[in-house]
Design brief:
Elements (H helix, E strand, L loop, with lengths): L9 E3 H8 L3 H9 L6 E3 L2 E5 H17 L1
Antiparallel strand pairs: 1-3, 2-3
Helix pairs in contact: 1-2
Amino acid sequence: MSDKDAAPLTITVSEAARRLGIGRSAAYQAVALKQIPAVRIGRLLRVPVRALERKLDTAAEKFEDT
């Protein structure tokens, strides 16, 4: 697999919203509230895919425990 075919390490907030099935505004609000992990790269705001997956796994585990 070449670097070109590799999955991206980060996605836009809009892409994270699509993957989560929520609106773009809700995703930006969740980033502001630190509910969705994000990093700023210059002027760009990006969501690290692995951090988002870990966050979802942790939330799912907590939900299953209740």
